[in-house]
């Protein structure tokens, strides 16, 4: 569990092909964003679509070698989100800002992708050991394919769903070990967390959930906490961190209990405090 492995040549080739496909699809992605922006005042839901498309681009760009796309797309998402949160369309200044940012997006997309370092991650299990099942809920197909490929190589069997609704129809598998899920979906800014809450309340989802999102704001993190998140990882996803997190969450080994040092001038009171901590209720150190 302490050694590391590099990507084998066949997997490196698959990742390279995924990144090349992403670059080829960029013009189409940007055209959809442009159309949503053009229709923001004439078509119902166009502004929400613009925010969602910008969100997806912000979450995937850096992963595929376009960190500038992620940065600019996140600025667009923030501008649109500010207007939608107070129930209005973009004002003149905001519209000009978004238009300028769209021009920057197009100029960045014309440049070659930056090299993306392949991760070197801990080996999770010995050969022959059954891989643990992880459900990946991600509506960005390119990002889901790359993440599933990497997680699959490093010790997990991954099933991908592109919506919370499809997750709800497939959670009965007894081999399921964990769920990795985005926060934002077309159904809503917090649709991922809301879906997990419903499944947990119905006692249909009893495994750890790791939320991922380009959003790092407090409302998104609070929604994840309320949904009982085991972890929250912001995009672009660092595969090494995700692998370590999943390895820890799905390990059969019990975690080492916390050790607490209590400093108090009354031994009886220190003993009372110690009893409140189940992990140290049979042993504690008292420093007067």
Q: Would you kindly provide a written description of the structure presented here, covering whatever features stand out?
A:
The structure is a single chain. The chain is α/β, with parallel strands linked by helices and 288 residues long. The chain has 3 domains: 106 residues, Four Helix Bundle (Hemerythrin (Met), subunit A); 126 residues, 3-Layer(aba) Sandwich (Rossmann fold); 33 residues, no CATH class. Helices cover 49% and strands 12% of the residues. The chain is built from 10 helices and 9 strands. The strands form 3 sheets. Strands 4-3-5-6-7 form a 5-stranded parallel beta sheet, sandwiched between helices. α3 packs antiparallel against α4. About 5% of the residues have low confidence.
Characteristics of this structure?
single chain; 288 residues; alpha/beta; Four Helix Bundle (Hemerythrin (Met), subunit A); Rossmann fold; two-stranded antiparallel ribbon
């Amino acid at each position: 569990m302490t050694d590391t492995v590099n990507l084998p040549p066949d997997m490196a080739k698959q990742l390279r092909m995924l990144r090349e496909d992403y670059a080829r699809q960029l013009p189409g992605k940007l055209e959809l964003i442009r159309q949503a922006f053009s229709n923001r005042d004439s078509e119902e839901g166009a502004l929400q679509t613009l925010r969602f498309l910008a969100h997806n681009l912000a979450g995937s760009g850096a992963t595929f070698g376009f960190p500038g796309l992620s940065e600019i797309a996140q600025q667009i998402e923030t501008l649109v989100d500010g207007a939608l949160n107070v129930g209005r369309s973009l004002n003149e200044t905001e519209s000009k800002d978004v238009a300028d940012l769209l021009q920057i997006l197009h100029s960045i997309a014309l440049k070659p992708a930056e090299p993306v370092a392949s991760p070197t991650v801990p080996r999770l299990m010995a050969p022959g050991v059954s891989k643990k099942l992880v459900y990946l809920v991600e509506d960005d197909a390119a990002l889901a394919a790359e993440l599933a490929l990497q997680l699959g190589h490093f010790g997990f069997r991954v099933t991908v769903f592109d919506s919370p609704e499809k997750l709800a129809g497939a959670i009965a598998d007894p081999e399921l070990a964990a769920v990795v899920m985005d926060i934002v979906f077309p159904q809503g800014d917090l649709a991922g967390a809301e879906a997990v809450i419903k499944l947990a309340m119905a006692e249909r989802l009893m495994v750890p959930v790791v939320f991922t999102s380009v959003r790092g704001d407090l409302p998104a993190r609070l929604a994840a906490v309320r949904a009982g998140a085991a972890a929250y990882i912001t995009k672009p996803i660092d595969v090494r961190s995700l692998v370590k997190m999943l390895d820890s969450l799905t390990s059969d080994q019990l975690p080492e209990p916390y050790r607490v040092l209590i400093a108090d001038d009354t031994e009886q009171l220190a003993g009372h405090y110690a009893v409140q901590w189940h992990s140290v209720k049979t042993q504690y150190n008292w420093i007067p």
